[in-house]
Amino acid sequence: MRTLSSYLQGAWQPIAGEPAATLVNPATEQPLAHVSAAAHLREAAAYGRDVGGPALRRLSFRERGALLQALAKRIFEHREALLDLAVESGGNTRGDAKFDIDGATGVLTAYAVLAEQLGDRPWIIEDDPEALVRTSKIRAQHISLPRHGLAIHINAFNFPAWGMIGKLAVALLAGVPVLSKPATSTCLLAHRIAEIITEGDLLPPGAFQLLAGPIGDLLDHVGPQDVIAFTGSAATGAKIRGHAAVLAHNVRVNIEADSLNAALFGPDLEVGSQLFDLAIRDCVIEMTQKTGQKCTATRRIIVPAALLADTRERLSERLAEVAARTGDPSVKGVRMGPLSTAQQLADAREGVARLRQRATIVTGDPERRAFADLPEGTGYFLEPILLEASAEAALDPSAPFHAIEVFGPVATLLPYDGTLAAAAAILRAGQGSLVSTLYSDDRAFTAAAIAELAPHLGRLVINDEKNAAGAFSPGCVFPQANHGGPGRAGCGAELGGAHGLGLYMQKTAIQGGASQLARIIGNRPGTTQSAS
Ligand code: NAP
Fold first, then answer.
1. CA 488 to centroid of chain Cα atoms
2. Ligand 1 pocket, residue 27 CB under 6 Å
3. Best of 188, 215, 226, 251 to mutate for ligand 1, by most ligand atoms within 8 A of CB?
4. Residues of the chain with pLDDT under 50
5. Which helix (H) or strand (E) is 61 found in, with range?
6. How many degrees, rounded to 5, is the angle at CA 169 between CA 297 and CA 176?
7. Domain annotation covers residue 487
8. pLDDT of residue 529
9. pLDDT one-digit tens code per residue, 153-172
10. In a shared domain, residues 471 and 510
11. What does the pLDDT read at residue 201?
């Protein structure tokens, strides 16, 4: 069986010692590959900083954008084989696999387009020069430049392609070299993409390295110009934030962690409307796509009490259809595959048991063992589980559905009295989320909800009847929109178009004479202000 190694200091590392992990197909439990642990991570970090950094900084934004476009093209050329690998190694249906892989090339393309707008300047001009004192010609102007460090990207198991490439695209456009560490359990896909990236020397030496297997002592070697972008559990995020070297050097850390995203059905929503159908469609997608292993999946469905019975009935019908077609995702017609690992299945079952302390299951059996096209008990399967709590429990901020993210096809119906105050209290009890969605045609309610809810979210999707036909399901993270959220969600921010570059750049105020600033720095593109 093949053993995967790391790509460090411009070469695939020799395989040494016992494998650190064995990767399996989560539907059939067949072993697929071993992963070997890497060494010499101090040298790898230095190589990225000293070789990759200067090479990237010599390129303009436009030139770096051309690299991203070339990477997107290269990955797209391998799309079919990558989709097959994602199905085999990650428990993805073909649709799930497309979501991951096409999402990855989509981010590359979006940032390549942004690069064209940023053009050939060596820095981003953040604002126009501002006089420090009304009578003085001395001004201050903010510009952003690439940090002279390494971007360390630590990713979760659920999006081996999008997670790695989404972060890579932004860092490379900013001009910062990357050392990417995918989650071990699903790193087969990330490793294959790394092979594609490194074949043919598309990127400058040192611009990209891959650490397969455990993190080792990498974080002991971080420096003050480095950036750590982490996606994963809150517990690991806290360890990274509290790491001695990270603290000692005040390393910039971005955390994307757990999130109890909500769907809020407005008080005006009517059964039979297109908007109600959209809300049901979205909840089913967000519970079952990637078997619910999405940080943006809907975990709490906040429904006016008057709509509860209809919502329960419609969701139960639709989820039962998915449950009937849950099985080996390589088989045609299967709608939902397994969870990624045996540990994820054990954690999800335990999480459901904890939710049941304050909610009852209305659809789904967490102990089901027989799934399509597989011997009973094979694979890490969990059918969709819908729970329901009372209106009183829904308002209790200590209830488990406000605290436990069951990382699987699981959500809880939470009834409310139709007032924004109650809906907001329920949503806020999640203590900060990546995304939530409102379904309402009541503009006054929607405006008040934006003011009330947005501070608790990284993204708020508002859907109305008029736009229902073209609406995207809320778990789609577009590179133009912010990804991240306050509080429990990690308090991070990634993507969001040009906003995303800020993570990898240093914003500096340049203070000097007005004419000097105008000559050397100039104005923001599109503005005409001139120095006097
Ligand atoms: P995890 O166990 O925290 O692992 C995440 C990553 O951290 C993996 O690459 C892991 O490597 C690495 N890691 C483990 N211990 C570490 C340490 N001491 N120092 C540095 N890195 C370390 O999370 P997961 O199980 O992969 O992912 C599930 C969680 O991710 C869920 O809670 C989900 O909500 C969250 N998530 C959030 C987002 C978001 O954007 N907010 C997106 C996806 C997932 P190994 O695999 O080698 O252990």
1. 14
2. no
3. 215
4. 528-532
5. helix 61-77
6. 125
7. no
8. 45
9. 999 999 999 999 999 999 99
10. no
11. 85
> Which pTM value belongs to this model?
0.95
What per-residue confidence (pLDDT) applies to 373?
85
The CATH number that applies at residue 100 is 3.40.605.10
Query: What are the CA-CA distances from residue 140 to residues 130, 211, 262, 508, 518 (Å)?
Result: 5, 41, 43, 10, 11
What is the reported pLDDT for 525?
66
Query: Which of 89, 157, 339 to mutate for ligand 1's pocket (most ligand atoms within 8 Å of CB)?
Result: 157
Catalytic residue positions?
256, 295
- Structurally, how many domains does the chain consist of? 2
Residue 33 β-bridge partners: 23
Question: Do 270 and 129 reside in the same domain of the chain?
Answer: no
C-alpha 130 – ligand 1 centre gap (Å): 43
Q: What was the pLDDT predicted at 349?
A: 98
Answer for the pair 261, 414: CB distance below 8 angstroms, yes or no.
no
pLDDT tens-digit profile of 446-480?
999 999 999 999 999 999 999 999 999 999 999 99
Q: Is there a single domain that holds both residue 151 and residue 210?
A: yes
- Residue 372, number of CB atoms within 10 A of its CB: 15
Cα 506 to Cα 176, 224, 238, 500: the distances in Å are 11, 12, 24, 13
- Rg (alpha carbons) of the chain, rounded to whole number: 24
First to last CA, the chain: 70
In a domain, 526, yes or no: no
| Any atom of ligand 1 within 6 Å of the Cβ of 6 | no
Q: Which range of residues forms the domain containing residue 269?
A: 261-479
